[in-house]
Amino acid sequence: MRPRAGPPLPDAGAQLRRLRFATVWLAGCSGCHMSFLDLDEFLFDLADRVDIVYSPVASDIKVYPDGVDICLVEGAVANADNLELAFAVRARTALVVSFGDCAVTANVPGLRNLCGGPGHSSGEAVLRRGYVELADTHPGIPRAPGIVPELLERVLPLHEVIPVDLYLPGCPPSADRIRAALLPLLDGQRPRMDGPAMLRFG
Amino acid sequence: MSVITLTVDGCDVAVPAGASLLQAAGAAGVKLPTLCHLDGLTPVGACRLCLVALEGTTKLLPACATEAAEGMAVSTTSPELREYRRMAVELFFAEGNHICAYCVSNGACELQDVAVTVGMDHSRFPYRYPQRPVDASHPWFALDHNHCILCTRCVRVCDEIEGAHVWDLAERGSDCRIISGLDQPWGEVEACTSCGKCVEVCPTGALFHREDGTSEKHPHRELPFQLRLAREQGQWRNQGQALPQALEGGGEDPS
Q: What pLDDT was estimated at residue B137?
């Protein structure tokens, strides 16, 4: 098993320059990002201290960049695009945060793992259920390679795909919890993740 | 009443003979995490969260189901015990289908609380996603096996407090599950008095009122202790009402 304490923050030099900060949206409802936006005025403080180099809610950059210091990853890993982006995040980020219950546990997206039964791809089963068994007209499994990403056999929590440095549970994590985790990180410290204010699922 | 003296984390405590190590820990001001334990019900040591170390033995013991003995030296906390407790909670989450976000007991769930207590920020075990049914055949209540952790509180409260013994365990290992009656749909079990005690004591969202939606279950878990106390002390006699012969002297020995 991976030791619970993650590595320290980015290199020491990172504290002398503006941190490169990213947020990523995988298989989730975007509720964690809505909670992030709920940081309200703190977003101004954050913008003073970091460069937001990739984010579905705060930038228009399409390719995950190199040399990211901190990345909040919302959502489980459910399809080929999620998987590719998760690998890119790990390769190009110093500190990866599993952001919210979907990233931490697979949560609601993971419920499709119940489809199909043991030993079968829940991706195939859920498509068959939705597009064949319940179809009113024109039953057929949609396929558009290169356009619509293929579903993985199982929906996975982020840490089952890449090593994760910090877990920030909650559905969604409240803005207060996000701020309490981010503030120490901006100063190169690990936040204390204990007690109901920081840890509670749901 | 004879008294037992022992130490808990180096602190001298005295408890009545017959007390459990959980009670001894309480006397020392130590609050151990528990899930299957409930005051008023017979302890079973099912959840393994209250495991403690005992000087002179390498075996860890469930505090709730171990009787305090003279001269015991009990240790309730160590890196090893903390790790085992966290692993036990992670295994609960990984074993069933516990999705707090849409659960009836979200916010009032003892499993959710205990995950905070043991510092669980994620599960290091892969989730099993077992296929489990929901029994909604009872007119008022329902049983969602997906959220059941097999603490057997419902089994014990129904047997020991209500006296109906509707619930029991069937199968073994990963197939182990709660059954009602003779493995019938709950709504068809004639022995069920629909008292709802099982719903009140369920630590998770496994047993719930049918009308409860997400985060709407707010149970009353002190109920068995209060009922047992009322029976033992014959509290109803103070109302000046005569009891049927069958209930007179009903104070059963709790041990």
A: 98
